[in-house]
Amino acid sequence: MKAIQIEKTGDVGVLQLKEIAIPSPSAGEVLVRLKASGINFADIYTRRGLYARYQHTMPFTPGMEGSGIVESVGDGVTEVKPSDRVAYAGSTGSYAEYAVVKASQLIPLPDGISFEEGAAFPLQGLTAQYLIYEFYPIKPGDVVTVHAAAGGVGLLLVQWAKYVGAKVIGTVSTDEKAALAREAGADLIINYTVNDFISQTMNFTSGRGADYIIDGVGLSTFAKDIEAVRVRGHICLFGSSSGQAEPIAPGMLMLKSITIHGGLLGNFTQSREELLHRATVVLNAIREGWLKLRIDKIFPLAQASEAHRMLESRKTTGKVILKIDD
Questions:
Q1: 122-133 and 152-163 are packed helices; what angle lies between their axes, rounded to 10 degrees?
Q2: CB-based contacts of 154: which residues, under 8 Å, 6+ apart?
Q3: Which residues are registered as beta bridge partners of 322?
Q4: Could you state, in order of their start, the residue ranges of all structural domains in the chain?
Q5: How high is the mean pLDDT of the chain?
């Protein structure tokens, strides 16, 4: 089969298209014939060799999100059967024509959802779902700030926060991204390259600050979150697209009685029941029409390096997909 392989960490040049053997599923595993693969910042961290949890034995096939058709199943698998349409996130190896995935990680993909959508919703859709419901009980009229509001998760968060009644502040870096965040429903758009995020937030909230700030950017935003959130407000850090957030002194939290949360999808899909519950909520929202996926770019498998380059430069708006098979 064709697969992207990494033999050493580094820039996009380490992503190489290779011919390797099709893997075989063991007990509890499934061989999926992939149709599409989602590209995420975690893939970039993996390629660069950053952070212990993204390190792998070389060589390996990157990609942790995909969709396709069940080709075969290992012993003891009851969750799916051959020919089933499925999607998943959290299992390495989706930049390939085939991947072995634990049966417990597979999400049934309804017929009305395309394979491209199937590779776009699991990681970002389920992430948006838990960020909205797990940390702060958003009430109608609450002010929710979404950083990188035109990104894959950001656009979903803006739509979801509006759906539950919030007033949404979205931060972006370009006028094009501002238009997309506004279209998704953001009430105030802050272009942080030309405007001060803190002062604009305070003006919008009459000096009170945001109730809940959802931050997947990290280094360039987190310290400002502390100043822009209200007394007894909540901040959730779930990503670091600009780099790891710098440490803060615990006393800074005490001054405004701030609560800080850490988000990581795997911690909120620890059982199959929880995974399927969150996936069902997301898929229902998509089918009902109030939650819309934005697929920005679709690249063939052989152009994985270009797909990484686009995402890494933060030139994308929405999801980037590798199309594996026609």
A1: 40
A2: 146, 147, 148, 170, 181, 216
A3: 37, 299
A4: 2-121+293-323, 125-266
A5: 94
